[in-house]
Amino acid sequence: MHTVQYSDRLGLVGVSTHSFRRTALTQMSSAGVPLRVIQEISGHRSLQALQRYLEVTELQLEGAIASLSF
User: Fold this and answer.
1) Residues 46, 63 contacting (CB under 8 angstroms)
2) Rounded to two decimals, what is the model's pTM?
3) What is the pLDDT of residue 11?
4) pLDDT at 16
5) Which residue blocks in 15-68 are alpha helix, DSSP H?
6) What whole-number distance in Å separates Cα of residue 56 and Cα of residue 23?
7) CA-CA distance, 53 to 39, in Å (whole number)?
8) 18: helix, coil or strand?
9) How many C-beta atoms lie closer than 10 Å to residue 50's C-beta?
């Protein structure tokens, strides 16, 4: 059974293998896994292509700003 079939069975709307892939890559990035390592795992040919997959959360933005020392 494909992920989409499982998603349909569970009543999940708008979920696909693509969304699971995007979430997994974003979680690795959030955990501090180097982008080159994520690129190797995901099979993207370039870092630019990989970065289109990675989401930036509000919490990440807040953490980045909080890390600044004035």
Assistant:
1) no
2) 0.68
3) 72
4) 66
5) 17-30, 35-42, 47-51, 58-66
6) 11
7) 11
8) helix
9) 20
17 in Cβ contact with 4 (< 8 Å): yes
What DSSP designation does 45 have?
S
In the chain (70 residues long), the average pLDDT of successive 10-residue segments reads 62 71 90 94 94 88 88
Compute φ and ψ for 53, nearest 5 degrees.
-80, -25
Amino acid letter for position 20: F
Count the residues in the chain. Answer: 70
Q: How far apart are alpha carbons 30 and 56 in whole angstroms? A: 9
The CA distance from 20 to 9, in Å, is 16
| Encoded tokens for 9 | 């069975």
